[in-house]
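=== RUN LOG ===
request id: a7f3
mode: sequence -> structure
chains: 1
length: 134
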Amino acid sequence: MTLTLDVSTAVEQVWKSQVQEVILSTNSGKIGILPDHQDILTALDVGITKARVDNQWIVMTVIGGIAEIRNNTITIVTVEAEKATEINLEEAKVDFAIAQKQLSQALSLKEKIEANLIIEKAQVRLEAAETVVS
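=== RESULT ===
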């Protein structure tokens, strides 16, 4: 038995496929979804989403949003999503280093909050890119 996973942003459908299992990064931690899971609606955190397809894990970044699990369909609506295979590892490393520098130079509370959000996204992109290499 499988699940349908549909990951979309406001401007595009990032991925849609039949999967055996999904691991989501929610605001309250990671949750695993298998076929016949209880229907839920949950807020998503900035994090990595993993989907098992034909016994291989597909990794993607999800930058916040919501996930609805209903009738063996997982619908994710997010601000931004990216498949790990589409992330350039070297660019992700540079982006993370820039984000760290921005955080270290932030003076006001607003600057620190904005820098933390940027570093969180950069870190998730780097982690996802590293899964492709390893």
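=== NOTES ===
The mean pLDDT is 95.
The longest strand covers residues 56-70.
=== END ===
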